[in-house]
Structure to design on (550 residues):
């Protein structure tokens, strides 16, 4: 089953969304924080009411004593404190002070009042455009989707009243229990007022009155408004940073990769490879390295395709001649006499052998140039001596020029000569060089093989030189001698004149693949092959190969 395609840019956006996760999580946790603050506020009300109730319970509960106790507290309380008698009548109120009394705490139930108690930033926080923007979904939810909740009573419930028995929390306190209530704050503010009622104990355990502590939550909500506004700013900053980072990653990762994909599809055609796609990027990074690698891959693949086309063309051209000769001889056989039949048979056999050598040589060349390799290392002197003995045997057996002497020697200080190439490949390359040198050497000539170790910039090398005393290489052919099927053979050591049967026999034995094999083996092993004129006449071929570790 095909896996769903997820663009990189989508994954980038998903990862960058984590930048705004913490502000969002903080925003969602504000409700929990608000509930904890309200719970702490209620605990504070209870503690202040309990302290006042315990103080009042030590003596007679009267209006004058209650006012005196509240006056003694001064500004050391944060809640609005009311003292009630057993009938629910108001005895004292901390927000109503006599004219000669010292300054007391501000009205704790007041939802908003200008002055030093309220920070000037509290009101603008909820009116900020950032706050309205981010709280819009919540307002819509509460207005249209949230389930209806029971409305709260107004904090004006006790305004102007002297008797508080209508309040459920007051009745609970006068019955000896703790009472609590929540009402909407006055002034049209989005806040509530918490009420906590506690009984004033008497020696016999029956409540002699109650303490009603109340406080508005506006200051808490004002702080939450500012906190929400700060979280909103952080959220918007994180969102902007996430968007900018996503855009940057899209410009530097997703878009370059998409461009490489387009170039790769365009490079699928042979024409596209020839035109050279995968243009270098403007930034040097891993994607730029990938583009460079793909560009190099495309170039090498184009070269490989060109090589394959040239290979097929050369094979078609070279194999056509022996096949045409075989076909012509076969057409003449029915009308030929005994002697002509023998001559035509020899020609067919010679041309068939030539075609077989061409196919075999091309097969070996394609294996080498295609990257197939053997194991190494190779003992250079041992391989050189075996190749020299084999070339000398061929020379003396009538299959090649005769009376050619081959010597192998190494430099005195060369030490152990081991090349980083398989022995079979080294033998194939050196055998081709020796066959070439023997075929161009004059009768009674000498071919020398010299081995040495040298150090170059990229490490130690083994230099294996083959020197002959042949006619040398004309300057106009020096750049072509390593090409496939190229051969240049003037009148040789046997005096074969071009156009004669002996010259044709010699040409059929040399198809121009030997030096191409030598170059392919050298390049595959990480080396090279060089050619130069030998002082005094002749040619020097030098095979340079990496030295195996000692």
């Amino acid at each position: 089953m095909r896996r769903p395609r997820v663009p990189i840019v989508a994954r980038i956006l998903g990862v960058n969304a984590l930048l705004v996760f913490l502000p969002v999580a903080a925003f969602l946790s504000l409700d929990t924080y608000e509930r904890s603050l309200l719970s702490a506020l209620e605990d504070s009300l209870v503690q202040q009411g309990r302290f006042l109730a315990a103080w009042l319970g030590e003596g007679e509960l009267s209006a004058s004593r209650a006012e005196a106790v509240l006056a003694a507290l001064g500004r050391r309380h944060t809640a609005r404190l009311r003292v009630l008698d057993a009938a629910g009548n108001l005895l004292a109120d901390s927000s109503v002070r006599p004219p000669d009394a010292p300054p007391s705490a501000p009205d704790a139930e007041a939802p908003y009042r200008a002055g030093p108690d309220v920070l000037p930033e509290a009101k603008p926080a909820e009116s900020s455009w950032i706050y309205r923007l981010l709280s819009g979904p919540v307002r819509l939810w509460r207005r249209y989707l949230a389930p209806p909740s029971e409305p709260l009573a107004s904090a004006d419930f006790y305004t102007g009243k002297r008797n508080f028995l209508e309040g459920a929390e007051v009745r609970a306190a006068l019955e000896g229990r703790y009472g609590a209530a929540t009402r909407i704050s006055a002034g049209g503010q989005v806040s509530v007022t918490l009420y906590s009622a506690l009984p004033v104990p008497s020696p016999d355990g029956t409540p002699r009155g109650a303490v009603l502590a109340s406080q508005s939550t506006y200051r808490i909500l004002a702080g939450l408004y500012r906190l929400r506004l700060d979280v909103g700013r952080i959220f918007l900053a994180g969102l902007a940073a996430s968007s900018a980072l996503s855009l940057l990653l899209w410009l530097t990762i997703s878009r370059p990769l998409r461009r490489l994909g387009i170039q790769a599809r365009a490079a699928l055609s042979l024409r596209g490879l020839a035109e050279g796609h995968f243009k270098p990027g403007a930034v040097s990074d891993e994607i730029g390295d990938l583009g460079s690698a793909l560009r190099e891959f495309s170039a090498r693949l184009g070269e490989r395709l060109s090589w394959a086309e040239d290979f097929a063309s050369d094979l078609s051209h070279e194999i056509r001649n022996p096949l045409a000769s075989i076909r012509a001889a076969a057409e003449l056989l029915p009308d030929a006499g005994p002697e002509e039949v023998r001559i035509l048979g020899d020609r067919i056999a010679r041309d068939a052998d030539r075609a077989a050598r061409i196919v075999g040589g091309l097969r070996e060349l394609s294996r080498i140039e295609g990257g197939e390799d053997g194991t190494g290392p190779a003992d250079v002197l041992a391989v050189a001596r075996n190749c020299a003995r084999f070339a000398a045997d061929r020379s003396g057996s009538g299959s090649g020029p005769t009376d050619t002497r081959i010597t192998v020697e190494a430099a005195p200080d060369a030490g152990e000569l081991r090349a980083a190439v398989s022995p079979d490949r080294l033998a194939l390359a050196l055998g081709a060089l020796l066959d070439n040198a023997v075929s161009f050497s004059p009768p009674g000539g000498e071919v020398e093989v010299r081995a040495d170790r040298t150090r170059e910039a990229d490490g130690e090398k083994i230099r294996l030189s083959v020197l002959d005393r042949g006619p040398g290489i004309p300057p106009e052919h020096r750049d072509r001698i390593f090409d496939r099927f190229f051969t240049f053979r003037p009148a040789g050591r046997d005096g074969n004149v071009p156009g004669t049967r002996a010259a044709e026999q010699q040409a059929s034995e040399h198809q121009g693949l030997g030096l191409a094999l030598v170059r392919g083996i050298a390049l595959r092993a990480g080396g090279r092959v060089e050619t130069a004129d030998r002082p005094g006449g002749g040619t020097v071929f030098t095979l340079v190969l990496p030295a195996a570790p000692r």
